[in-house]
Specification:
The chain is of the alpha/beta class. The strands form two sheets. The protein has a four-stranded parallel sheet. Strands 6-5-7-8 form a four-stranded parallel sheet, sandwiched between helices. Helix 10 crosses helix 20. The protein has three domains: 107 residues, Fumarate Reductase Iron-sulfur Protein, Chain B, domain 2 (Orthogonal Bundle); 132 residues, Rossmann fold; 120 residues. It contains 20 helices and eight strands. The chain is globular. The longest helix is centred in the last third of the chain and has 17 residues. It binds iron/sulfur cluster (SF4) (2 copies). InterPro entries: 4Fe4S_Fe-S-bd (IPR017896), Cys_rich_dom (IPR004017), HdrC_iron-sulfur_subunit (IPR051460), Helical_ferredxn (IPR009051). One of its GO terms (molecular function) is 4 iron, 4 sulfur cluster binding. Keywords: 4Fe-4S, Iron, Iron-sulfur, Metal-binding, Oxidoreductase.
Length: 375
């Protein structure tokens, strides 16, 4: 019998360019083991980064069958980049598992939640379009504006005030009207495993923003999808793409301290994985909070590069809802153990997950909108 590394990845040939990345994990003594929030929440070897990468590799080189039970671990990942921070090789587990999902979808062995997400993608993006139509009625919005705002499906689906707060804040801080983008970045397709449509969606977005001067993105997941995953496919935006916190932090002097009863107690910042490890944005949200609160925000013991994932990403709430729930509860338990109070984040999925569990959770957009005097 040949050694596994001698075999071509004949069964899932689209993973061939990822062979070296997969093998780095397969032959690794699991050095990043303790960093994976999924296998920490559900301690099974197949759910460690090593286990997930090995399973995709063994399916690809025909060591195991291409079957739903061997495919499922590829979806047991939030795409949090946590393992990369603990890997001497900075191995790209996130991108490789997303690639594996696409290969496994093509084989018809994706988990039902992923298949559903692909089938219902059009329905999901219609909510973004409806939201954009509502925002178009705001006096700050003009189709011809050079600055465009992408709210993202998760904020649009929450049907709260955050999208309008963000649009009005960007317009006020930038001193000019903004336009609102009604095309999704395709993140749900990336997470579910439809790479072809994900690329098409990225091309559509690039077309829509090509005459804009900049794109301000509200959801950290959308910003990371555009700047990391679409860029990997060679799909770039002509306009610079900035997250809301990066845009607002350049205008700190225009913000005033907020006067809210809850802001007098502990206010702890949760780093969203896609904003922090994904884009390397750690200081901008902290600077915004410090300006709004008049003091540095409280911190989790595990923060910045080492922050724990809240379980909201990579489609995990759909494919493994119990594990995603445990991860959110664990993060909130840490928050309580460190003094409780208000938890602030800049990620629609984390916010929803924290609020659903009864936490006093506030979006950073809401705080910046108050500090900018638009709320
Ligand atoms: S990500 Fe790095 S440390 Fe983790 S299993 Fe793979 S090679 Fe090893
Ligand atoms: S990216 Fe995050 S969830 Fe995925 S394997 Fe690595 S640590 Fe685990």
């Amino acid at each position: 019998m040949s050694r596994p590394d001698d075999r071509p990845l004949r069964r899932l040939p689209t993973l061939e360019p990822r062979k070296a990345t997969l093998e780095r994990c397969v032959f690794c003594p699991k050095l990043c083991r303790s960093s994976c929030p999924v296998s920490n929440a559900e301690p099974r070897e197949t759910l460690t980064p090593w286990g997930k990468m090995s399973m995709a590799y063994f399916a690809a080189n025909e060591s195991v069958a291409v079957a739903p039970s061997f495919a499922a671990p590829a979806w047991a990942c939030t795409g949090c980049f946590g393992c990369r921070e603990h890997c001497d090789h900075r191995n790209d587990v996130t991108g490789t598992l997303f690639e594996a999902r696409s290969a496994l979808v093509a084989e018809g062995v994706a988990p039902p939640g992923a298949t559903r997400t692909i089938e219902r993608f059009a329905e999901r993006t219609s909510v973004l379009r409806e939201n954009a139509q509502q925002l178009a009625a705001l006096p700050e919005v003009s189709d011809r504006a050079g600055t465009a705002v992408l709210v993202g499906c998760a904020y649009a689906r929450a049907r709260g005030d955050t999208p309008a707060d963000a649009v009005r804040t960007v317009a006020k801080l930038g001193g000019e009207p903004v336009s609102v983008i009604d095309v999704c970045c395709g993140a749900p397709l990336l997470y579910a495993g439809d790479k072809k449509r994900f690329a098409q969606q990225g091309e559509m977005l690039a077309q829509v923003v090509k005459h804009k001067e900049r794109l301000v993105v509200l959801d950290a997941g959308c910003a990371s999808t555009i700047r990391v995953h679409l860029a990997e496919l060679g799909i770039g935006m002509i306009a610079p793409v900035v997250h809301f916190t990066e845009f607002a932090a350049r205008e700190l002097a225009k913000l005033e301290p907020i006067d809210e009863a809850w802001a007098k107690g502990p206010v702890r910042y949760h780093d969203p994985c896609q904003l922090g490890r994904g884009l390397g944005v750690y200081d901008a949200p902290r600077n915004l909070l410090a300006r709004a609160l008049g003091r540095a925000p409280d911190e989790f013991a595990r923060k910045r590069e080492d922050a724990r994932c809240s379980g909201g990403g990579g489609l995990l709430p759909v494919t493994m809802p119990d594990v995603a729930s445990t991860m959110a509860k664990d993060r909130l338990a840490e928050h309580e153990a460190e003094g409780g109070g208000t938890v602030v984040t800049a990620c629609a999925s984390s916010l929803r997950s924290f609020q659903k569990r009864g936490a006093n959770a506030v979006d950073l957009v809401t705080i910046v909108a108050k500090a900018a005097g638009v709320r």
